[in-house]
Amino acid sequence: xxxxxxxxxxxxxxxxxxxxxxxxxxxxxxxxxxxxxxxxxxxxxxxxxxxxxxxxxxxxxxxxxxxxxxxxxxxxxxxxxxxxxxxxxxxxxxxxxxxxxxxxxxxxxxxxxxxxxxxxxxxxxxxxxxxxxxxxxxxxxxxxxxxxxxxxxxxxxxxxxxxxxxxxxxxxxxxxxxxxxxxxxxxxxxxxxxxxxxxxxxxxxxxxxxxxxxxxxxxxxxxxxxxxxxxxxxxxxxxxxxxxxxxxxxxxxxxxxxxxxxxxxxxxxxxxxxxxxxxxxxxxxxxxxxxxxxxxxxxxxxxxxxxxxxxxxxxxxxxxxxxxxxxxxxxxxxxxxxxxxxxxxxxxxxxxxxxxxxxxxxxxxxxxxxxxxxxxxxxxxxxxxxxxxxxxxxxxxxxxxxxxxxxxxxxxxxxxxxxxxx
Length: 422
What we know:
Helix content: 25-40%
Order of helices and strands: HHHHHEHEEHEEEEEEEEEEEEEEEEHEEH
Shape: elongated
Number of domains: 3
Structural class: alpha+beta
Largest sheet: 6 strands, antiparallel
Radius of gyration: 36 Å
Distance between the termini: 43 Å
């Protein structure tokens, strides 16, 4: 148990660190955020991908092994305890934790205390009654440990084998989802704004089709409201701006296609010449510092911040309004039709159900441990025809004792002797 607690403390600390440090970034990112020494330590300790690091997986494996061994070691003694708790002989020879004499209606007393199945017998001292309830409560900790084990296995195996895909596009676009054999189609995409011009919600309508059997499923997804289709979970991750780029050569149309902010387009008949769309400003104005910015989310004065490269060398960078043309020798470039695109993240975790089962088993274990309190009652009849009733409860003994005394009085028990203070 001490080893398990130590492992849990280390894993808890590791998870806290993993939630603070942005995962999956480069050394340069960490150096800029935390300094070069901290960045070196992050990379050396695999804190950039903590949950897939060798040491985190080993600690989790040791915890799983510990839980398995704890449950295996505990099982024989637990089965023996179950057997002993159901044996009247062991209880009849003890005095219990609480008792009352002179009970006239013992069976009614048993029933009032929640004991339904009452066993009867004949002993040396006379007839006896015996009952036990909530034996399943003895299994609470054992079942809880089993649930934690399943939860760790489900999460660990899921993280190790999870498939993650990212697809972005505009309504009407379709793309294959990795190696799954399924195709994602973006049916619609809407951005809802609040009165103060801030984004309230992104909502995308999607359809997933499996060419292998022709089946398809559709759903609406939004931020924090994913959908599950064909065993994969679809998340509305983010959005950005896209536009149409038009390239002419000597006044003749050469190239028309969609370009996304942060992406580039090589000129078709001169691939060394590249147009890069750095950013898009829907309501372009100059900031007080002189740089480009947007005054609102409305398309009042759209502008495109572009860069032009030739063989990796930058030729120029500027903001181009929608009514303006960019001229590069014989080529002219224009942008128009700005609209939002959606970025959808797809995850497939084959062990989600195992983790869910583990969580349910943990809940069951907690219910068994805290709500099903194992208790016993037994009674022996004296020569005068009245009964002496005993009770014992492993958990919540004080509450059990108070109710025992209260119900016992209702069934003819004599007042228990009062303790005298010296």
